[in-house]
Amino acid sequence: MSSEDEIQMDDSDSDQGDLDDECLSDDDGIALESHDQNNSEYRENAVPDNEVLNHDSLEIEMKKTIADVQAVLQTKSGMCRILLHKYKWNKESLLERFYENPDTTTFLIDAQVIPRHTESVPSGDSECDICCIVGPLSGLACNHRACTACWKSYLTNKIVDAGQSEIECMAANCKLLIEDEKVMTYITDPNVIASYRRLIVASYVETNRLLKWCPGVDCGKAVKVSHCEPRLVVCSCGSRFCFSCGNDWHEPVNCRLLKLWMKKCSDDSETSNWINANTKECPKCMITIEKDGGCNHMTCKNTACRFEFCWMCLGPWEPHGSSWYNCNRFDDSVAKTARDAQEVSRANLQRYLFYYNRYMGHQQSLRLEGKLYATVKSKMEQMQTLSMSWIEVQFLRKAVDVLSECRRTLMFTYAFAFYLQRDNNSIIFETNQKDLEMETEQLSGFLERDLDSENLVTLKQKVQDKYRYVEHRRKILLDHCAEGAEQDIWMFNE
Amino acid sequence: MSATRRLQKELGDLKGCGVRAYENVECDETNLLKWTVLLLPDKEPYNKGAFKVGITFPVDYPFKPPKIAFETKIYHPNVDEEGKFCLPIVTTENWKPATKTEQVMMALLSLINEPEPNHPIRADVAEEFQKDHKKFMKTAEEHTRKNAEKRPE
């Protein structure tokens, strides 16, 4: 597949229009689960229409959005950035809310960018509240003041140690967020300034629903799409991943089941036992969280989320009423269910191992078959010395590409199948899976064993026929799964 | 150390704050970063004893919050067996450099005086507190008599 060729690089202008339309239609800022079901039109065979942005172009895009908002609000760009952060970089919904609000000042106060109260300040030197040394003080719009050294220490601490890009005033009850311009006047260390700029861009990417960091090792680029949904995206570093969950592109299984599956698979190792015992997922954004203190009042560290919840019941912290006790009261019927479940779990374990072994088997094959690229390369060179042209020998490379794709698909079919309830549709699925698996093994056999034993013309014919057929089988399987998802026929046991 | 002046001032302020419940504060002369406050709750079942609270200030105080834990065992829904508790104003997320130790002590005192059984650390104690308050009071009083320090005259 040559889809990489189609990526637009740093093309910040062309998609702006689409982006705006999208924001208008959907201003809730929440990715819905339901799009697990309609991924058929974003199949991997379609050309991935995502943009790839590096740090600099991200900064440019961000500044452009800020400038647009600034033109309307007529306020500092640092304030606009904080406002946009609050609206998850959905410019349209920010402006809509701004126009709805009859009072601009209240709007800005609510967003914590201008102070609710301004305290009067004595002029001249006075004692700094923070370090208790008398000297010249300065401060924010709220007139909470401190000496320059304290501001600097405070901001450096927040930036370097806490990794925050939205920082509140130092005063105890003041919620005012410090605008970027102000931050920059206090921090002077170039490393801290660089960290702050990096954090701003990171916060821009992480809160923006249409952007996602590429999971590729040391890649550092982000991928931009026009709709937020589970789909294949391709980064210029070659990483191919799911936009929604950041994992390898995992069709036919959906993100939610894949996450369950991967968690289950890693449960065997010591590490995952630890993960199981010491971490939970944030109930809102599903990021994995480790609890490092006694307090059950948790705040999600994910900048886009910051959800506060109870570690025990995973409910939101705010409305925690007296009903809390329901989450730790011993319940007889629950205990009985637990005992029954234990008996079932033996059988379940057997079933799980069946799927796990096949899943891992294909994963291993996928890894090992990576070596085939080297083998076919030398074969291709050899064939070129014997009468064939460069273009004529490309079928071998293509065959290995197809083989890899099929392995990956097969791998994820076992995760899909593990959760699938048995019914007529699942039987069709299993038949498709069987066909694909059988044919894939044959293709793999051709490429691993028969490369040298056939004459070139028959080899080419056989390999081409096989990979075309395998590719076809794969498409049938994926189409069937996608159609099923669209018509909601798949029943999953979770 | 940038914290010295601030800590000296805070120490003086706390000693002279006139609130009996937390004005008994001791500080190691060689180490300004380690304080011990004798907390005197005024509500039953804790008003018969005194509770040592250890405060450890980080070197980069006040930009990082102090670490606070009970050194005296206390039977309380919001304090665990190791003396740890959850006080929002001293969590890393919520900490503000302008917050003074006196304010922290005030918040701690009110948590001890008025337990929050809906946000417990020790669920068993919290359940007893809500479901069988009489028994809770008895256990806590007993516990205070056995483990707490003597209140200064």
From TrEMBL, chain A:
Residue ranges for the region (Disordered) are: 1-50
Q: Name one Pfam family in it.
A: IBR
Q: Known InterPro entries for this protein?
A: Ariadne (IPR045840), ARIH1-like_UBL (IPR048962), E3_UB_ligase_RBR (IPR031127), IBR_dom (IPR002867), TRIAD_supradom (IPR044066), Znf_RING/FYVE/PHD (IPR013083)
What domain of life?
Eukaryota
Q: RING-type domain spans which residues?
A: 124-331
GO BP: any one term: protein ubiquitination
Metal-binding: is it a keyword of this entry? yes
Q: Sorted alphabetically, which Gene3D superfamilies does this protein's record hold?
A: 1.20.120.1750, Zinc/RING finger domain, C3HC4 (zinc finger)
Q: Which GO terms describe its molecular function?
A: ubiquitin protein ligase activity; zinc ion binding
Mind listing the UniProt keywords for this protein, alphabetically?
Answer: Metal-binding, Repeat, Transferase, Ubl conjugation pathway, Zinc, Zinc-finger
Annotated catalysed reactions = [E2 ubiquitin-conjugating enzyme]-S-ubiquitinyl-L-cysteine + [acceptor protein]-L-lysine = [E2 ubiquitin-conjugating enzyme]-L-cysteine + [acceptor protein]-N(6)-ubiquitinyl-L-lysine
Where are the compositionally biased (Basic and acidic residues) regions? Answer: 33-50
Q: Where is the signal peptide?
A: none
Q: What is this protein called in UniProt?
A: RBR-type E3 ubiquitin transferase
Q: Which organism is it from?
A: Caenorhabditis nigoni
From the UniProt record, report the name of the gene that encodes this protein: Cnig_chr_I.g2801
TrEMBL record, chain B:
- The annotated region (Disordered) lies at 133-153
Q: Which transformation does this protein catalyse, written as a reaction?
A: S-ubiquitinyl-[E1 ubiquitin-activating enzyme]-L-cysteine + [E2 ubiquitin-conjugating enzyme]-L-cysteine = [E1 ubiquitin-activating enzyme]-L-cysteine + S-ubiquitinyl-[E2 ubiquitin-conjugating enzyme]-L-cysteine
Do the record's keywords include Protease?
no
Write the record's keywords in alphabetical order, separated by commas: Transferase, Ubl conjugation pathway
**Gene3D superfamilies documented for this protein:** Ubiquitin Conjugating Enzyme
Which InterPro entries does this UniProt record tie to the protein?
Ub_conjugating_enzyme, UBC, UBQ-conjugating_enzyme/RWD
Q: In its UniProt record, which GO terms are filed under biological process?
A: protein modification by small protein conjugation
Q: Where is the composition biased (Basic and acidic residues)?
A: 138-153
PROSITE patterns, per the entry:
UBC_2
Q: What is its EC number?
A: 2.3.2.23
Q: One matching Pfam family, short form?
A: UQ_con
Which SMART domains did the record assign?
UBCc
Q: Where are the transmembrane segments?
A: none
Q: Name one GO molecular function term.
A: ubiquitin conjugating enzyme activity
Domain UBC core, first and last residues per copy: 2-149
Source organism superkingdom: Eukaryota
Which PANTHER family would you find in this protein's record? UBIQUITIN-CONJUGATING ENZYME E2 (PTHR24067)
This protein's name? E2 ubiquitin-conjugating enzyme
Native species of this protein?
Caenorhabditis nigoni
Q: Which gene encodes it?
A: Cni-ubc-18
